[in-house]
Amino acid sequence: MELEVINTGSELLLGNVVNTHLSFLGRALFPLGFRISRQIAVPDGEAIRGVLLEAFERSEIVLVTGGLGPTTDDVTREITADLLGMKLLFNAEVMTAIEARFARRGLVVSDRIQRQAMIPNGALILVNPNGTAPGLYFNLQNRESDSAIRHLFLLPGPPRELIPMFNEIVVPILKDILPQSEPAQCRIYRIVGLGESQVEALVGESLLAIKGLELGYCARPGEVELRIIGSASVLDQAEDFILSVLKSNIVSRDQNTLEQVVINQLVNQNKTIAVAESCTGGFLSNRFTNVPGASLVFLEGFVTYANESKIRELQVDVGMIERHGAVSAEVAVAMAEGALRVSGSDYALSTTGIAGPGGGSLEKPVGTVFIALALKQGEPVVERHLFPTDRENFKWLASQAALDLLRRTLSELK
């Protein structure tokens, strides 16, 4: 069934408020067997009329958020009633609920507030215990019309009102509209170490040959999400192939971030980590400590941005810096070994590089970074990467490479 979402609110289009409704509704609808085919955001006021008319002609189910409030620009209810040829009738029960809510807060009900008790005849009231404006559901299946619309939901805009109303009231209605024995499933694989085109070249053609499988990619800095949708049996077939080709590059199949995966590996192996950072300026430590439970394994972080700090805090040899430069494999290893020694951890990561925009050379251009991993038991590992981008993305990509180096090492030692 074609399902469309219309989000109203000038604040969404001005950029003052992030539209979280679409992501919430998309996630909530998918397990029920529904997919959003279209979404549009419109400003408050009369603009809703045109998009509703268009939606009625092409979509069987339409969800509208916002425009049910008491102010002059909240006209979704009135315009909907006009388009459907329904009269607005005063509803005493809704008014009583509004008055009770205002009384609890010691507020006076104004004429504007009373507008919210005007209900189109033929609409089902969706009770809103978290606000004054009730939601409305229009079952239009028996309506004599050539338009596609069969089900219309008018829902409040504030998330604290929308989310509980949708989960508690709208979901049961939708389940009756489209009962399913086996709704489609979605599996997402988080992949590092490969670009989007590389992932597609490795698995795309074979996956597209699997009947009943929907395939998609989403590229982010330092990682790619591979998404497959279909029945459980189809997904199992696709997963076997994906794992056989990409297993070493797959970080997670449960939406866990790279740092969450690494923290879990450390906890499961009863190992600890310390970090020594130069070019990432504490960003790597920040990613570690953003994960709940990091205190079990993350011992210490050193931000040794200046050479003097590397020498003082990590005992990096001044002669080594003079011979090889602060951005070098040798200094990266010395930083990691220093952090390992000072903290007493099982592992230590280090980063040293040139974030730019200046400071590069032919031998070490802007974006160069050396990442080292020191181990209490084993020889240190060092990698050189090139991330010629802005400083913020540089730090993200460098930290991503460092975390993945640790992930791969822990996976091999598992």
Explained architecture:
The protein has 414 residues and is α/β, with parallel strands linked by helices. It folds into 3 domains: 3-177, MoaB/Mog-like domain (Molybdenum Cofactor Biosythetic Enzyme, Chain A, 3-Layer(aba) Sandwich), CATH 3.40.980; 185-252, Alpha-Beta Plaits; 258-413, Maf protein, CATH 3.90.950.20. Helices cover 41% and strands 23% of the residues. It contains 15 helices and 17 strands. The strands form 4 sheets. The protein has a 6-stranded mixed sheet with strand order 2-1-3-8-7-6, with helices on both faces. A 5-stranded mixed sheet has the order 14-13-15-16-17, sandwiched between helices. Helix 3 packs across helix 4 (76-84), helix 8 (196-208) crosses helix 9 (232-246) and helix 10 (258-269) packs parallel to helix 15 (391-413). The radius of gyration is 28 Å and the shape is elongated. The mean pLDDT is 94.
Short note summarizing the structure:
By secondary structure, this protein is an alpha/beta fold. It is built from 15 helices and 17 strands.
- Global morphology: elongated
CATH class of the largest domain: Alpha Beta
Low-confidence stretches: none
CATH domain topology of the largest domain: Molybdenum Cofactor Biosythetic Enzyme, Chain A
Taken as a percent bin, the fraction of beta residues is 15-25%
The CATH homologous superfamily of the largest domain: MoaB/Mog-like domain
Largest sheet, in brief, is: 6 strands, mixed
Give me the side-by-side strand order of the main sheet: 2-1-3-8-7-6
CA distance, first residue to last residue: 47 Å
Q: Count up the helices.
A: 15
User: If classified by CATH, what would the architecture of the largest domain be?
Assistant: 3-Layer(aba) Sandwich
Percent in helix: 40-55%
Topology, number of strands? 17
Structural class label: alpha/beta
Count structural domains: 3
